[in-house]
Amino acid sequence: MDPISITGLIIEVSNVLSCVIKYTKAVQGSKDDMRKLSEELFALKGILEHLSTGIGDNTPTSEKETESESSGPFDRDVMARVLFTTNEFLQTLLQELEEPATKFKKLKQKLEWPFTQDQVNAHLVRLERVKSWLILVITADTAAAEKDLHQEITSLSKNLKEDLRIREQERVQKDNEALFKWIAPVSPADSHLRASNGRRIGTGRWFTKSYLKAWLRDPLDDKRILFLVGKCMTALVTLAQIVGELTNMAQHDPNLCFAYFYCTISNTASQAAVNILGSLVAQLARSNPGILEDIRSLYDKIPKTQTHSQPVNFSALEDAIIRHSNGKSRIVILVDAPNESSEMEYIERSLLYMARLSLNIRILVTTTSTRASSKEANFLNIRAETMEEDIKTFIQYRLEHDTTLRNLTPKLQAEIAETLFKDADGSSVHHQ
């Protein structure tokens, strides 16, 4: 839209109005026609002045022209033609109303109104048409401006909500970190890393590809706890393999969540039953934050300077896991080597208690020994024939990567492999 053309039209309308007013003072009669024409001209002048302000658009002229060419509701050429014809019309009115050059014409002007009734009506219709079209332009531009404003407000609102969500998430995370330190002072991450490093590609499949999935999906088995009984390192590496398998399964099943823990003889804190259960709750809370709510109320009652001397209530941890295993969620708990803890009986009793009270809980324990009975749990003994392929894989790995063994002759390597396999008795060569 060319603001110079609109400004020019405003000037022309003002000139025509000036001539009409002069005629009104000089001509006898036709006052009604002059009044109507003046009103229409004043209205047109007001519309043009509104358009000249840019209709509230503060963008530079070059940007407005670019936007108009690309997405404006009216064609620029059409607008230019309307302004041009309007200007011609105003010029015609000026010529008809211009002051006569001779005394005779001046006298005639005082006596006659230059337009017939039909001409006046035609001029009024033409003025009304121009006004209507320009009003449509104003309305369309206003609607476009309101649409842009609405989009900006919507975008701002969305950004504010996202910012508030992130801030709230950061606040909750910060609060939870302190709570996690209270309920889970021991992390299984380092033990899991060591166990994973001792694992070899292809091992553990004897369990993960058959026993594991069948055990997880059997709704009729009322013994929802399974003990894998075998050599120490064998059980440890097997549990690491199961954690990896469950991680893959959880990526495709939003209702599956799991937690694991390794008891180690070198870390006394990892043998405490309350630390084991606390770590399990903290891990489950990552995918199910609601599990922390009841425990948080206990934490808030303790002075923060005394949290290190007042551990979380063990029963509260059990109840939190049981309560949040209802509905669609399936919880899998993995615990390695509770036999290395002086609280072994207490730990096993707690695990059996949770498995008995919730249909959606599955608990897997890898251990060298257990006090649980066959009436309340399932057992799977890890023997040499059970994991024959794993043992062969470990032996082959050692022969290929050990600096001493890999330089031996093939015959001697074969003899060593045969001897190691016979003596393995269900234990990995890594342990040997």
Question: Can you characterise this structure?
Answer:
- This protein is an alpha/beta fold.
- The chain has 2 domains: 157 residues, no CATH class; 197 residues, Rossmann fold (3-Layer(aba) Sandwich).
- It has 15 helices and 5 strands.
- The protein has a 5-stranded parallel sheet, with helices on both faces.
- Helix 13 links the parallel strand 3 and strand 4.
- The longest helix is centred in the middle third of the chain and has 67 residues.
- The relative contact order is 0.09.
- The C terminus is likely disordered.
Briefly note the CATH topology name of the largest domain.
Rossmann fold
Number of helices: 15
Taken in chain order, the helices and strands follow as HHHHHHHHEHEHHHEHEEHH
Low-confidence stretches: 55-72, 426-432
Largest sheet: 5 strands, parallel
**Total number of β-strand segments?**
5
Strand arrangement, major sheet: 2-3-4-1-5
Overall shape: it is elongated
**What average pLDDT do the residues reach?**
77
Number of domains: 2
| CATH H-level homologous superfamily name of the largest domain | P-loop containing nucleotide triphosphate hydrolases
